[in-house]
C-alpha cells in the first residue's frame, strides 16, 4: 500500500509541473500581446496629434490665402471703379470746354432757410378775357400757346345786343345833326327879330339833349370795348375781342360757331415775362422771412438758379394749412420758369464761415450720389462728397475733399456727360 501511494504522488507532481509551465508560457504571451497593442495605440495617438497640427497649419494658410485673394479682389474692384469714374481730357480740351479749375478752401456763406415752392402766373399780368356781350363766334384768330400783342384781334363775335347799341348811337347822331341845324336856324331868326326868343331857347335845349344822347350811346359801347360805327350801318353786330396787353394765350375756351355768354371766360392771357415763385412759411419760420429779403431759387428740373427778393408775405395764416403765403417776383425773359414747376426757395440770412467750400456749379448728382470732379493729371476723377450749407453760389463740404485740392468749378455737366458715355462704352 505504501508503494502505490508514492507512485501516484510522482504522477501528480509531473502534472502539476506541466500545468505550471503552461501557465508561465501563456502569461508571457498575454503580456507580449498587451504591450504590442499599447504601443500601437500610442503610435496612432502620436500620429493623430501630428496630423492635427498639420491640418491646423494648412487651415491658417488657406485663411491667409483667401484673405489675400479677397483684398486683391477689393483693390481690383476699387481700381476698376476709379477707372470708370475717370474722365480723360487734355489741357486743350479742358480749355475748349470752358472748364475752370479752382482750389477748395474756406469761404463766407450766407445762412439759408430752405422752402418748397411752385412757379405760378403773375396775377398782376394775367387776364381772363370775356366777351362782355352774348353772341356767336364768327372767327377765332388766336390759338393756344400763341404770343399776341396788345390790341391784337383774338376773336370776332356776332352780337344782337351790340347791333342795338350801335343803332342807338346812329339814331342819336342823326338827331344831333337835326338839332344842331334847327338851333342854327332858330338862332339866326331870333337875331334877325323874325322869331320869338322862346323858339330859340327850345332849339337850344333840344340840341343839348341830342348831344347828351350821343355821349350816352358812345359810353355804352365803350364799356363793352366796342368803338366806332361802320358807315351805312354795315356790320353793326360785329364785335372784335382784342388782347388787353401783350402776352401768351395759356387757356382757350372758344371754337368757331360756338355761342357764348357775356361773362364766359373764352381766353386766359398771361404775360410770362414775369412770374411768381410762391411758397408757404410755417409760423416758426416767419421771423426769418421778410419782405425785401434776398432769395435763391432753384429747381431739380434743370441747373439754372436765379436770385430774387421777397415781394410779399401774407399777414394771415391759412385756415387749413396754418401757414403764411410768401412770393417772389421773377423776371422770366427766356420762359424757363414755367408755371407749375416745383422749386426750392433758399431765403438767405447772415454770413457764416466754413472751412471748405466749392462752387455750387461743381456739385453733380451721379447715380444718386453727390459727386465732385477732382482734377488729376490727364483729366478729372468723380469723387463722392458730402455737402452741407449753401447760399446758391458756394456749397460747404463736410467730407470728401480737403482744402487746397483742385476741382472743376464750372461746366461740370460736360464732365458728367463724358462720364456717362464712358460708362456706357464700358458696359458694352
Can you give a write-up of this model?
This protein is an alpha+beta fold and 428 residues long. It has four domains: 17-84; 86-122 and 271-427, Efflux pump adaptor protein, beta barrel domain (Elongation Factor Tu (Ef-tu), domain 3); 125-156 and 242-268, RNA polymerase II/Efflux pump adaptor protein, barrel-sandwich hybrid domain (OB fold (Dihydrolipoamide Acetyltransferase, E2P), Beta Barrel); 160-236, Helix Hairpins, CATH 1.10.287. The protein is 38% helix and 33% strand. The chain contains five helices and 22 strands. A six-stranded antiparallel beta barrel has the order 3-12-15-14-13-16. A hairpin with a 2-residue loop joins strand 13 and strand 14. The longest helix has 83 residues, at 2-84. The N and C termini lie far apart (124 Å).
CATH topology of the largest domain: Elongation Factor Tu (Ef-tu), domain 3
Structural class, judged by helices and strands?
Answer: alpha+beta
- Which overall shape is indicated by the principal axes computed on the Cα atoms? elongated
Q: What's the pLDDT, averaged over the residues? A: 79
Low-pLDDT segments: 1-7, 36-61, 67-83
Q: What is the ordering of alpha helices and beta strands?
A: HEHEEEEEEHHEEEEEEEEEEEEEEEH
**In total, how many beta strands?**
22
Strand order of the largest sheet: 3-12-15-14-13-16
Using the CA coordinates, give the radius of gyration: 52 Å
Distance between the termini: 124 Å
Strand content: 25-35%
Number of separate structural domains? 4
From the coordinates shown, what is the CATH architecture of the largest domain? Beta Barrel
**Main β-sheet, in a few words?**
6 strands, antiparallel, barrel
CATH H-level name of the largest domain... which superfamily? Efflux pump adaptor protein, beta barrel domain
- Helix content percent band: 25-40%
Number of helical runs?
A: 5
CATH class of the largest domain: Mainly Beta
Amino acid at each position: 500500500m505504501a508503494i502505490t501511494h508514492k507512485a501516484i504522488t510522482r504522477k501528480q507532481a509531473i502534472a502539476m509541473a506541466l500545468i505550471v509551465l503552461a501557465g508561465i508560457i501563456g502569461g508571457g504571451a498575454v503580456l507580449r500581446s498587451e504591450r504590442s497593442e499599447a504601443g500601437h495605440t500610442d503610435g496612432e495617438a502620436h500620429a493623430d496629434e501630428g496630423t492635427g497640427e498639420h491640418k491646423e497649419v494648412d487651415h491658417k494658410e488657406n485663411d491667409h490665402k483667401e484673405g489675400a485673394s479677397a483684398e486683391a479682389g477689393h483693390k481690383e474692384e476699387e481700381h476698376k471703379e476709379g477707372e470708370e469714374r475717370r474722365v480723360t481730357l487734355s489741357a486743350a480740351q479742358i480749355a475748349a470746354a470752358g472748364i475752370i479749375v479752382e482750389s477748395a478752401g474756406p469761404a463766407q456763406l450766407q445762412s439759408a432757410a430752405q422752402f418748397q415752392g411752385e412757379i405760378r402766373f403773375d396775377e398782376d399780368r394775367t387776364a381772363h378775357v370775356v366777351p362782355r356781350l352774348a353772341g356767336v363766334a364768327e372767327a377765332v384768330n388766336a390759338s393756344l400757346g400763341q404770343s399776341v400783342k396788345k390790341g391784337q384781334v383774338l376773336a370776332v363775335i356776332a352780337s344782337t345786343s351790340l347791333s342795338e347799341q350801335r343803332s342807338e348811337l346812329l339814331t342819336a347822331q342823326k338827331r344831333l345833326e337835326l338839332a344842331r341845324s334847327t338851333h342854327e336856324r332858330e338862332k339866326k331868326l331870333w337875331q334877325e327879330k323874325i322869331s320869338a326868343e322862346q323858339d330859340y331857347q327850345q332849339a337850344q335845349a333840344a340840341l343839348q339833349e341830342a348831344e347828351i344822347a350821343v355821349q350816352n350811346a358812345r359810353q355804352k359801347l365803350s364799356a363793352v370795348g366796342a368803338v366806332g360805327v361802320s358807315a351805312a350801318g354795315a356790320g353793326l353786330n360785329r364785335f372784335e375781342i382784342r388782347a388787353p396787353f401783350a402776352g401768351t394765350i395759356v387757356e382757350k375756351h372758344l371754337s368757331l360757331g360756338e355761342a357764348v355768354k357775356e361773362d364766359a371766360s373764352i381766353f386766359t392771357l398771361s404775360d410770362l415775362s414775369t412770374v411768381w415763385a410762391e411758397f408757404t412759411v410755417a409760423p416758426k419760420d416767419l421771423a426769418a422771412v421778410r419782405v425785401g429779403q434776398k432769395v435763391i431759387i432753384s429747381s431739380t428740373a434743370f441747373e439754372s438758379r436765379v436770385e430774387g427778393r421777397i415781394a410779399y408775405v401774407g399777414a394771415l395764416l391759412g385756415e387749413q394749412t396754418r401757414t403764411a403765403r410768401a412770393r417772389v417776383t421773377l423776371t422770366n425773359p427766356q420762359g424757363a420758369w414755367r408755371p407749375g414747376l416745383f422749386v426750392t426757395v433758399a431765403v438767405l440770412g447772415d454770413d457764416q464761415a466754413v472751412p471748405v467750400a466749392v462752387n455750387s456749379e461743381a456739385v453733380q448728382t451721379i447715380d444718386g450720389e453727390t459727386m465732385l470732379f477732382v482734377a488729376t493729371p490727364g483729366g478729372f476723377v468723380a469723387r463722392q462728397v458730402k455737402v452741407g450749407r449753401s447760399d446758391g453760389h458756394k456749397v460747404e463740404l463736410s467730407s470728401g475733399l480737403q482744402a487746397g485740392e483742385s476741382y472743376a468749378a464750372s461746366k461740370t455737366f460736360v464732365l458728367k456727360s463724358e462720364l456717362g458715355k464712358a460708362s456706357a462704352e464700358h458696359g458694352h
